[in-house]
Write a structure and sequence with these properties.
Elements (H helix, E strand, L loop, with lengths): L4 H14 L14 E6 L1 E2 L16 E2 L1 H13 L3 E2 L2 H10 L6 E8 L3 H12 L4 E5 L1 H5 L5 H11 L2 E6 L2 E6 L3 H17 L2 H15 L3 H8 L3 H8 L4 E5 L12 H19 L5 E3 L10 H9 L4 E7 L13 E5 L7 H9 L1 H6 L9
Parallel strand pairs: 1-5, 1-12, 2-3, 4-5, 5-6, 6-9, 10-11, 11-12
Antiparallel strand pairs: 7-8
Helix pairs in contact: 1-13, 2-4, 6-7, 6-8, 11-12
Length: about 350
């Protein structure tokens, strides 16, 4: 049986929790609060039994409900992202807080997540990639999952070499997915899209249909945005890794997504979220770009809690993923202690380089 990276991380987190070592980090490393990150919120299903590499982007409604209950029981205050930003700027450490964010713009945000947030009177921000709402985004990671799941062999060209992957067993499928996925993550955005379109053509996967099945439309987004708990932020037009784009193209991805949301929804968009959000997808150039375009703050996927020191890094704020591979309340206790992030970031409170 293949060992996934998430299995190794879970083992490390379990050791940290059951040993009680994490309690030594409470106080110094607990911070002001956290920005939590979600993508899909929906009941757990395995469309391809035993093979679901994108499970990391899915959180069940029951787990989300349990997380909010846990945070409330621990006197963590639910605040909007706007309020979280204001507290960082003011240095207000009077009470710990949680701001919830959801990336991309999927239909389940309206259908599954909103009722849970209403139950707890919990504000949240949804970051929208506008082509997803148009039903035209290239959700290539989902297409790749479907291609690998539905075929016993998958062929593609990687670094100039034609490779054929055997994808009969679950282990083979996971290995093939991982290699192709990370190849597509490191090539240019244009090449990535050409490659996945060629694969979809070869293996008869309908990219547009995949997007429409997952995404809210504009009327659904308007219905979501009408709720007073909901704020909308920008997430580029094409869900593009900005660091891989020329500066003028990256700037347009930011500007046009903000402008389109403001025109369609009649609101002012103040917050931004970098697609993928890791150091290879967003760095100092992108942080400065978003700042210079007049946004109030921006979030990454860099791991960590919030500290007063983040006042000087408002366009590189870390988040805590409610990752679908880690749906246990033990992990929430660990996250709130700050222990995993102190270790991950080598005891640096700010990771914005």
């Amino acid at each position: 049986m293949a060992i996934k990276k998430s299995d190794i991380i879970r083992a490390g987190l379990s050791t940290l929790y059951h040993s009680g070592i994490y309690r030594a980090f409470e106080g110094t490393w607990s911070g002001m609060g956290a920005i939590f990150m979600l993508h899909h919120i929906r009941p757990q299903v395995e469309p391809f039994p035993g093979f679901h590499p994108n499970s990391c982007l899915e959180t069940t409604p029951d787990f989300l409900d349990a997380v909010l209950a846990r945070l409330k029981a621990q006197a963590i205050e639910f605040v909007s992202l706007t309020e979280a930003v204001a507290r960082i700027r003011s240095g207000d450490t009077s009470s710990r807080f949680a701001a919830i964010t959801i990336d991309d713009g999927y239909r389940d945000n309206l259908e599954q997540a909103l009722p849970i947030f209403r139950k707890y009177d919990c504000p949240f921000t949804v970051f929208i990639a506008t082509k997803i709402i148009d039903g035209e985004a290239v959700l290539w990671w989902l297409a790749l999952e479907k291609i690998v799941a539905e075929n016993d062999t998958v062929s593609t060209r990687i670094d100039g070499v034609e490779k054929t992957f055997q994808t009969t067993s679950t282990g083979e499928k996971l290995a093939a997915y991982e290699e192709i996925y990370w190849y597509l993550r490191r090539v240019s955005e244009d090449k990535q899209r050409r490659k996945i379109m060629n694969l979809c053509c070869r293996y008869q996967v309908n990219l547009a249909q995949l997007c429409r099945q997952q995404a809210m439309g504009w009327d659904q987004l308007r219905a979501l945005q009408a709720d007073p708990l909901v704020d909308i932020g920008a997430h580029t037009v094409n869900h593009a890794a900005l660091a891989k784009l020329p500066e003028d193209v990256a700037r347009q991805e930011i500007v046009l997504s903000k402008r389109r949301l403001e025109d369609e929804l009649g609101i002012e968009v103040e917050h931004f979220c970098y697609p993928y959000g890791d150091p290879g997808s967003a760095g100092v150039r992108e942080f400065e770009m978003v700042r210079d375009l007049g946004m109030t703050a921006a979030v990454t996927t860099r791991k960590g809690l919030l500290y007063p020191e983040h006042v000087d890094h408002m366009f590189a704020l870390p988040r805590v993923s409610l990752n679908g591979d880690y749906q246990s309340l033990h992990y929430i206790d660990l996250y709130l202690s700050g222990a995993p992030f102190a270790l991950w970031n080598k005891f640096q409170k700010v990771n914005a380089a």
